[in-house]
Amino acid sequence: MAQTDGKKMLLIINPVSGKKQGGKYAQMIVNKFTAAGFDIKAVFTKVDENAYDIAVKHGASYDLIVCVGGDGTLKETSCAINELGKDIPIGYIPMGSTNDFAHSLGIPDKPEEAVDAIINGEAHSVDMGRFGDTTFVYVAGFGNFTAISYSASIRLKNMFSKNAYYLMAVKEFFKMKGYHARVEADGETFEGDYFYAEASNSYSVGGLPILHNIGVRFDDGYHELLLVKMFKSPKELLKLAKSVATHDITHNDMVIFRHCKNIRFMFDEPTPFTLDGEFGGNQTDILIKNQEHAFRIFTSKPLPVDGDEYESPDLALSNSEK
Length: 322
Description:
There is one protein chain. With 322 residues, this protein is of the alpha+beta class. It has 2 domains: 149 residues, 3-Layer(aba) Sandwich (Rossmann fold), CATH 3.40.50; 159 residues, Tumour Suppressor Smad4, CATH 2.60.200.
């Protein structure tokens, strides 16, 4: 066990995340951390005080900050660490609908195991992104279906979890269109109509580990640029769907993939972005920069090296049903 006695922990709990599991597991979480020797201050988020507000207000004097919630709660906490300008490690107990970044880092889904990963694990540096004047943890994207992540209601997410996104995707299917963009990426320029595009630092986005095994590292100072061209026929759509299903997108000529430090997206008209599942504003010209080793986060083992065994919850479910 790591040395924990007397360490001061700010514990931030989003009580409505994950079918209100954050509130349900709060006492267990506090009890396990207390038994491990931490000196804890626990604070619940509220409508008018999110994790960012709490961490900025209280976090500067703590040895570590642990957040309980979804990707949005982690984003708020990490942004607060940046604002404080202190090297305070983050513990993350994922309770969201997809938990993409947690899955990529190998942070356990089960709350008890996630607590143990913080008690017994080590904090490792990871990159995050600058998006104009704000920041994001693992993905900034635009295109078809991206609005689903922030437009799905909390009630719908809590009722159907990840399936809420799939239900809304069916609803949005017949509204698909191409988004014209000019993209400058570390000296290269691309221009065209795109079905979807992202700058990310994760194996998994939207619950699909489509970027696994293609050189993704979480601490290398690079984001992964993914540009998916707008399909022009049902045949191209089927080809794209097959590439996603088989996690083999880089061999599809409709996909452009690069590792980049700086990415600039330019549009003819305001285009909505999503940042870590939240609305990122309508943009016409936005520069994304990698912020290397932006914060430290606890994991139960060293950061995965791309190529390590990875299995998403969806794949695990399908395998168990075979």
